[in-house]
Write a structure and sequence with these properties.
Helix content is 75%, strand content 0%. It has 431 residues and is an all-alpha fold. The protein folds into 2 domains: 192 residues, MFS general substrate transporter like domains (Growth Hormone, Chain: A); 195 residues, Growth Hormone, Chain: A.
Length: 431
C-alpha cells in the first residue's frame, strides 16, 4: 500500500520486513545464475575433459555484466506495468532464467566443436539474461527502499546472494557428485523458480509522476538529470568516489590466493578457508553492517566501514611480515571478509542514494559499471606491484589506496553530514 504524507513525499510501499524480504529474495535470484555460469558450468566442463584453455574463454561470456548499461535505458523506457514498472520485466526475465538453467541440463560437454559452440552460446545467453535481471533487481531495490532502510536492504541483498552462492557451491556440487551434473542444473532451475512467488507478492512500486516517454529521454535523461542535480564538478567527484571507494578490495582480491599459496598453504586449505570461513565472515559482516548502518546513517557508515576495510588489508600485511601459520590465515581471511561485508553494505546504499527512481535502471547500471573499472582496470597492475615491491609493501599499498576515497568523502560525505552531497532527494528533486 502506498500513502501520501503531509510533507508531500510518498511513503514507501509495504512494511519494513516485507521490503527486506523482497530484496533478500531478489539477491538469491541474482546469485543463482551467476554461480551457475561461473562455477557450476566450469566444474562440469573440467570433469568432462574440456581443455583449460577453452574453459578460460568462458570468461568472455561475462561481458554482458560489464555492458549492461547499453540496454538499461530500454527498461526505463518500456516498462511492463503489471505488477509494477520493475517487477513486470522481472517476472519475464526470471521465467526465462528458469528455462535457460533447465535447458543447460541438456548439454553434453565434450571436445566436439558443435558441443563447445552450444555450451558457449548457452553461457552467453545465461549471462545476458542474468545481467538484465541484475539491472531490474538493482533498480527495484533503489526505488523501493526509503533512505533509512538502504543499509539493511543492501545487507539483505548480499545475504540472499551469498545464500545462493552456498546453495549452488555446496548443494549443486553435491548433487553433481551423487546424481550427475544435469540434476545439479535442474536443481538450480528449481531454486530460481522458487523466487518467482516472492517477486509476484513483493511490495508494489508507486507510479511515477513523470514517466520516461521516449528512448532519447531514456538514454540522455539519466546523465542530464544527474549532472543537473549535482553540477558538473560534484558529479565528477561522486563518480570518482564510486570508482575509488572499493579499490583496495579489488587490489587485494586479485592477489589474495597467489599470496596465500606462496606463503606455503596448500590450494585445498586456501580454497576451504576462503569458501567456508571467508563466506561465513562476509555474512556476519553484512549483518553487522546493516545493524550499524541503521544507527550511524550513510555518511558515518562510509567512513567507519572504509577504516575497518583498511584494517582488514593490514591483517594480510601482518601475515606477510610476521607469519602466523593457520591461525594467522584464519585471522587475515576473517578480518578481511568481515570488513568486506560491511564495506559492501555501505557502498550499495551509496549507489542507491545517487539514483533518481525515474532513471534508476540506467543510473544504477552506469554507476555499477564505473565501480567495475576499479575491479578490472585499476586493479590490473596488482600483480606487477606485488612482484616489484614484495608482499608486505604491496599490502601497505592496498591500505594507502583507501586515501583518495577518504579525501573525497571529506568533501562529499562529511562525518557530521546527514547525506551525500548531490544525492537524490525526493523532497527536493521531482520524480
Amino acid at each position: 500500500m502506498v500513502s501520501s504524507r503531509s510533507d508531500g513525499a510518498v511513503a514507501a510501499p509495504g512494511r519494513g520486513w516485507q521490503r527486506l524480504l523482497a530484496v533478500g529474495a531478489e539477491g538469491v535470484a541474482s546469485g543463482t545464475p551467476y554461480m551457475v555460469g561461473t562455477k557450476l558450468l566450469q566444474g562440469w566442463l573440467t570433469t568432462s575433459g574440456v581443455p583449460l584453455a577453452l574453459i578460460g574463454l568462458l570468461g568472455l561470456a561475462e561481458l554482458p555484466y560489464t555492458l549492461k548499461m547499453l540496454w538499461a535505458p530500454a527498461l526505463d523506457r518500456w516498462p511492463i506495468p503489471w505488477p509494477d514498472r520493475r517487477r513486470g520485466w522481472l517476472l519475464v526475465v526470471q521465467g526465462l532464467l528458469v528455462v535457460v538453467l533447465a535447458a543447460m541440463a541438456l548439454l553434453r560437454p565434450s571436445t566436439n566443436p558443435a558441443s563447445l559452440s552450444a555450451i558457449g552460446l548457452m553461457a552467453v545467453l545465461l549471462a545476458l539474461v542474468s545481467a538484465t535481471q541484475d539491472i531490474l533487481v538493482d533498480s527495484y531495490r533503489t526505488d523501493l527502499l526509503p533512505e533509512a532502510e538502504r543499509g539493511a536492504g543492501a545487507a539483505a541483498t548480499n545475504l540472499g546472494f551469498r545464500g545462493a552462492m552456498l546453495a549452488i557451491g555446496a548443494g549443486g556440487f553435491s548433487l553433481a557428485g551423487r546424481f550427475g551434473w544435469p540434476l545439479a542444473f535442474l536443481g538450480s532451475a528449481g531454486l530460481m523458480l522458487a523466487v518467482l512467488p516472492f517477486t509476484l507478492s513483493a511490495p508494489r512500486l508507486p507510479a511515477l509522476e513523470q514517466p520516461v516517454t521516449s528512448l532519447r529521454q531514456a538514454i540522455v535523461g539519466p546523465a542530464r538529470e544527474f549532472l543537473g542535480r549535482t553540477g558538473g564538478g560534484r558529479a565528477a567527484l561522486l563518480l570518482a568516489l564510486v570508482l575509488l571507494y572499493r579499490w583496495p578490495d579489488g587490489l587485494l582480491n586479485l592477489m589474495a590466493v597467489p599470496f596465500l599459496i606462496q606463503q606455503g598453504f596448500s590450494p585445498a586449505v586456501v580454497g576451504s578457508v576462503l569458501a567456508g570461513w571467508g563466506i561465513a565472515a562476509t555474512i556476519l559482516g553484512t549483518l553487522l553492517g546493516g545493524v550499524l548502518f541503521s544507527r550511524l546513517g550513510l555518511n558515518r557508515s562510509l567512513w567507519l566501514f572504509a577504516l575497518l576495510g583498511a584494517a582488514g588489508n593490514l591483517a594480510y600485511w601482518a601475515l606477510a611480515s610476521f607469519g602466523g601459520g593457520m591461525s594467522g590465515l584464519l585471522l587475515a581471511v576473517g578480518l578481511e571478509n568481515l570488513s568486506g561485508g560491511m564495506v559492501g553494505t555501505a557502498f550499495v546504499a551509496l549507489l542507491m542514494s545517487l539514483c533518481n527512481p525515474r532513471f534508476s535502471a540506467t543510473q544504477y547500471a552506469l554507476l555499477s559499471g564505473v565501480y567495475a573499472l576499479s575491479r578490472s582496470l585499476l586493479a590490473a597492475p596488482a600483480g606487477l606491484v606485488a612482484a616489484r615491491v614484495g608482499w608486505g609493501s604491496f599490502f601497505l599499498f592496498t591500505v594507502a589506496a583507501a586515501v583518495p576515497a577518504f579525501l573525497l568523502m571529506v568533501r562529499l560525505t562529511p562525518w557530521q553530514g546527514q547525506g551525500v552531497r548531490g544525492a537524490f532527494d525526493p523532497l527536493r528533486d521531482r520524480v
